[in-house]
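Fold this sequence, please.
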Amino acid sequence: MSDSTPPADGPRRSAAGPGVGSAPSPVGPAGGDLVPAAPVRHVGPPPSAPRGPAGGLTRTASPDDLDRVQFEAAEDNRAERRVALTFVISFLATVGFIGAYIFMKIDTASYGSWQNYVLGATLALALFTLGAGQIMWAKSLIPKEYAVQERHDGASSEEERTALEETFLAGADQLGIGRRRLARRTLLLAAGVFPLTGLVILRDLGPAPGNTLRHTAWRRGNYLVDVETKQRIQAGEMRIGAILTVMPEKYEELTEEETATSPTILIRLRPGENQPLPGRENWVVGGHVAYSKICTHAGCPTSLFETQTAHLLCPCHQSTFKVDQGCKVIFGPAARALPQLPIAVDPNGYFFAQSDYLEPVGPSFWERG
């Protein structure tokens, strides 16, 4: 084929077919360079392909297209089976991840390291083969075609929009989702099961806490006992400025949750030093006050008491509480005062709790202020 000579009044429009757009004008009489009459869009073969009459592009297959035509049906089936195999491997790796997470024993010394190895390997294999299968699908099963769109100003013409729609639909057809049942089904199998890995991991969150964050093991009548001696504490035994960590009597029988939320500190202030909050005047016995030991910032144990200033310090982030003023926060990141435990003494002078804490103990969150 040879290029036709354009008329003298200007370059001709492309005859490449509807939706292709304007093609570059052929070489002029003086042998000049190609001058596009308008923004150009080529779909199909590259611009160097042979030209037909009137300077239009002849729609000839690219080398890749020719290779695709010559591709044997048996080889095409083998390519699809390879893609399907990667998806099956991804599915099996996902099942292996879930199985290892649920069934690996936790009562062996090497449990942690071996489970981490297995979980990491199966999760990596599942992700790798899922992605590799999709890449292989694109490389091996989708026909290849050149498409070049030159930059232009303004909105696309109706012909170009129609061409885009046709190109999109042709690409969807070439993807072969409807025809390649084996690859489609194995892709859906692997991709459908993989999200279960995230759901299985949520198992570690455990059961919903319910109202356990708002109650401790303290009940009316529970005696305060020293956690070291496990003995009841009698009024007058502690020196002024002393601090003790106390728990309910028989705290060894408490559940893990109750043990975590019940630690309390008993402090003896100087006579007349305490300034109880309104309504808490009877929560104090002879200068003895009891507050939760769990810092309201991050849950660290508050155990550093400065006698002269009546400051209680959390060693983790330096939150400081004023013990003689309801343990209010005077410094640091804690958002609220330490909860106070109402205490009293029995006829023999032993401290006991009047009730549980009337506010949640532990770190603050959106429902605790």
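Helices lie at 63-70, 73-103, 111-140, 158-175, 181-193, 196-201, 256-261. The chain is about 30% helix and 10% strand.
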